[in-house]
Amino acid sequence: MSLAVVFARASLGVVAPLVTVEAHLANGLPAFNIVGLPETTVKEARDRVRSALLNAGFEFPARRITVNLAPADLPKDGGRFDLPIAMAILAASGQIPTTSLEQLEFLGELALTGALRSIKGALPAVLAARDSERILVLPAGNGIEAGVIHPCPARLAPHLLAITAWLQQEGELATPERVMSKDRDYSTDLCDVIGQEGGKRALEIAAAGEHNLLLLGPPGTGKSMLASRLPGLLPPMSEEEALEAAAIKSISGLSLDPENWCLRAFRQPHHSSSAVALVGGGSYPRPGEISLAHNGVLFLDEMTEFERRVLDALREPLETCRISIARAAHRVTFPARFQLIGAMNPSPCGHYADGYRRSSSEQILRYLSKISGPFLDRFDLSVEIPLLPPGELSRARPKAERSAQIRQRVLAARERQLKRAGKTNARLSAAELDRFCPLEQEDAEFLEQALHRMKLSIRAWHKLIRVARTIADLEHEEKIGRHHLIEALGYRAMDRLLQQLQN
């Protein structure tokens, strides 16, 4: 047989489209051509496949070999096509049986010895193979990724010879060992934070309603400690959410820890990160920090040190929960549903209270103007984290609440939100706010007057109602009351600071 067809999977965002690998052997001068929009790494497969076949003891056909990767308009990159190309050549030259190839898919990078090296993006390929009811043959190094899927349609091979022996029914390929989801807790706990009861309360509200939170205060007051405790307050991820997050890690080339792969991500990029590092991109788009934080938390510490255009690039993903990156040949969409936590100092010197101020009002306004108003509008809550009062560290304190206790209240509030609207309060649209969060006429007039006094936008009106609805849910209240609105207005520390400086 001089023509053979083998199936493989490309990597395009978090999906793995089917690629048909066709190998044709023709008479003529020996040549080896790969067509079908291959990137440089795919073109280099010619040398890897030739050496791997010869070193594994197979005959490399001295004929005109043409390998087509279809569809031709889909970009292919990486070494993942080495194995399917080698299998197609072996099948076309009659060195392996072809009877079962229609039920199989192959992915793997070949070493020159014929050994298989692990690839990036194996998890989406396993999910796609399961949907197509085919068995996917993978390198043994991708066993942990494949093991999170049950039932798993994958088989693992350490070497090319193991696959050919399996096809000839002379051996068996290993099935990935199932990676079980364990009930593990986070290593950080909110009871470790001394004082800062206001910050803890704001963190609980943010966790309950999936609200974005800005922590404002001098250095060393516990802003980073509070932010790092947020994942421990959030509900456990569902299996679907955990697989989505694991798939993004897979295509990014990050290792999957079998012990905590189902825990929510906490990403903390450095303030020198570029827009591409944060939102994703590149000539062949890769996910950025906002996608790696999918279904988890993105923490921006020292927020005023980030470039303004980098922060503004987050505005659209915060609203749409995804990021689309367009290139000349293709468009890739990555999921980016994350909870944003920001932390910043109130002035260049780090302080703003009387007795500590070492910066003028003009200097502070110039410092805060590094962050655009539309980006600040994306935060539902902004809370002051002050210096601890004298004697707070040395006095005997009652035992603080643990994260597990607060999480129970968060879970109960989330359950009420999902039962009422099918989503968290932070995701409610304007129409849904009118339906699920009605205000009494007197309360609406009170909130509008407060809005005008603080010179807030209509977006702030909606955010205040969402936060008030979450506070009511934490208190098991059916309706939003005046005291809920007052507490929600209290979580506008940045607006009060800007108003104070401008007056």
Structural category is alpha/beta
Instruction: Specify the overall morphology.
Output: elongated
| Tally of separate helices | 21
Strand content: 15-25%
Describe this structure in words.
With 503 residues, this protein is of the alpha/beta class. Helices cover 38% and strands 16% of the residues. It contains 21 helices and 18 strands. It has helices spanning 40-43, 45-55, 82-92, 122-132, 143-147, 160-167, 197-209, 223-228, 239-252, 275-279, 289-292, 308-312, 315-320, 361-368, 373-376, 403-421, 430-436, 441-453, 458-474, 482-490, 493-502; strands at residues 3-9, 18-26, 31-35, 64-70, 104-106, 109-110, 116-117, 135-139, 154-157, 213-216, 266-267, 280-281, 286-287, 297-300, 322-326, 331-335, 339-344, 381-384. A five-stranded parallel β-sheet has the order 11-14-17-10-18, sandwiched between helices. The protein has a four-stranded mixed β-sheet with strand order 1-2-4-3. Strands 5-8-9 form a three-stranded parallel β-sheet. Strand 8, helix 5 and strand 9 (154-157) form a beta-alpha-beta unit. Helix 7 packs parallel to helix 16 (403-421). The longest helix is centred in the last third of the chain and has 19 residues, at 403-421. It is elongated and about 85 Å long. The termini are far apart. The model has no long low-confidence stretch (mean pLDDT 88). Residues 209-389 form the AAA+ ATPase domain. Keywords: ATP-binding, Nucleotide-binding. This is YifB family Mg chelatase-like AAA ATPase. Belongs to the Mg-chelatase subunits D/I family. ComM subfamily. Pfam families: ChlI (PF13541), Mg_chelatase (PF01078), Mg_chelatase_C (PF13335).
